[in-house]
Design a protein that fits this description.
Layout lengths: L1 E4 L8 H18 L11 H6 L8 H9 L3 H7 L1 H18 L7 E4 L3 H30 L1
Antiparallel strand pairs: 1-2
Helix pairs in contact: 1-3, 1-5, 3-4, 3-5, 4-5
Length: 139
């Protein structure tokens, strides 16, 4: 069941905590050149040529914050999605005192299981995309 609820008083919940984490990630991606650090990189990709699940995530966040949305999406779709969700969480954090309505989701056991399996499939599909892109760029 989905419904919107407005809290009676401003409360710090998971959404605001995730919003704060999102703000930290987005600010870091925008102002700290992590990809230029000498030790930065993917050890799995370096040794096997196969990208890990988070390969390109830093670049995706960085390009998202530069406004290069299509590039961000193409380098790592999961990174683009997380960056976009970070913006939503940051908006909730900024509007915290105004008590924005919250979406309350109550799932049955079966629906919850379906959502978890769907998330795993999407994560696996993202990794498959990264591997395919890496293999195609070699040839």
């Amino acid at each position: 069941m989905l419904r919107f609820e407005r809290p009676t008083k401003p409360t710090l919940g998971l959404l605001e905590i995730y919003g704060a984490m999102g703000v930290a990630l987005l600010v870091t991606a925008r102002f700290v050149p992590l990809a230029r650090l000498p030790f930065w990189g993917c050890a799995l990709r370096k040794h096997t040529g196969i990208p890990c699940l988070s390969c390109g995530m830093t670049r995706s966040f960085d390009w998202f914050m530069q406004g290069r949305l299509l590039d961000s999406l193409l380098v790592n779709p999961l990174g683009f999605t997380l960056a976009a969700l970070s913006v939503v969480g940051a908006a909730y954090l900024v509007l915290w005192k105004l008590r924005p309505p919250r979406l309350r989701v109550e799932l049955s056991v079966r629906a919850g299981s379906w959502v978890r399996w769907s998330a795993l499939v999407l994560i696996a599909a993202n990794w498959g995309y990264l591997i395919t892109r890496a293999l195609l760029s070699r040839s």
